[in-house]
């Protein structure tokens, strides 16, 4: 398999996609994995009406939380503080990383163990801590494999889905030479676990993501399958959780429906192996658990999506990855091609807010608009509609009166050649005489039609006028019959 990693830059999406499309082995591997996941999900939702009822409930829970987001975040902070959890607010990645660094320095920590967290990938926590001599070790097996190989996650739920067992065997042989070479999957997992066991014991700080935050009880809910998340949040003396501000729900009884939708949509499981609910640090007379718990609430562009009613539904996402598994584009180009933390359909609608539309303008167009992502979304996000809105926003800037509210980079894909072409089209097609003259000239001069026609011929054959227009052919037929 081609081991050249695609560039981590959304502006390189098209180049990355072409590179992956030329790799037949990788394409076959991805196609098989996506088919497997979609089949497992379908088996968990055999009753379509029942699924629709559950999805409507999940969608309403998320919409209810977003409608009261400022209020619920204040309630959450108050309840977390009452439970002994320290809350930090970070406007962007730089602030979030500084909070991590300050806590690490306060505890003289040079090592962190991290459970799976896409938000920590979003802020590039591992790289930023390494700049200050602090090792941040991934403990999710997929993330650990990628960290050893210097690679990036290609899927929200299964980050190393683009790796084969032969790839993993090679990676372990290179980085864990004291272990015997094997291509047996069970033995590879055992090797990884042995390598990570001491990391939990030696690290002073454990890092995790958060799936849901409960405002009413001040609880952090984590969903996982491997148990590494439970170790990372209980063995080290300090636990730092990081998540986006949108993950809050109002009540604890709002979690089970979302939990059911998440696990079944993500991996096709009725339940995951571990459901962790963290409500505070170690209490008096308790023998285990962290002595300190911190929560970092990250904005990083989320309030931009929240502020615009047209884009607020983006924040309903529960990060199940079902839209990726069913997307024909993602299944062919893979997650690394997108060059962003969140790939696939959900990444195409959320990355413009986390980064800006100028850098990610190709991502909303990376869709056939088949609607599969919207059909399978467990919380009813209208992904195809949002993709269309972003396509429009990339070409049209807001009026001056709304400049401060527009999406960063809005209008970046605006092309004056395209604007000129459409204006000419409007002029020609609104004047019958001019239109007939143009059609006559185009048919007679068709041999001079250029072979390259801007963006049209990037993936299509060039447009070429017919030898005679339809009007001329019908007129000729009428004369012959007459």
Gist of the model:
With 482 residues, the protein is an alpha/beta fold.
**Chain-averaged pLDDT:** 92
Ranges with pLDDT <50 over ≥5 residues? none
CATH class of the domain at 45-303: Alpha Beta
Q: Look up the CATH topology of the domain at 45-303.
A: Rossmann fold
Could you name the CATH homologous superfamily of the domain at 45-303? NagB/RpiA/CoA transferase-like
How are the strands of the largest sheet arranged? 1-10-7-4-2-3
Helix content: 40-55%
Largest sheet: 6 strands, parallel
- Per CATH, the architecture of the domain at 45-303 is 3-Layer(aba) Sandwich
Radius of gyration from the alpha-carbon trace, in angstroms? 26 Å
User: What gap, in angstroms, lies between the N and C termini?
Assistant: 68 Å
Counting DSSP H or I runs of 4 or more residues, the number of helices is 21
Work out the number of β strands: 10
Strand residues, percent: 5-15%
Tell me the overall shape.
elongated
Category from helices, strands and their pairing: alpha/beta
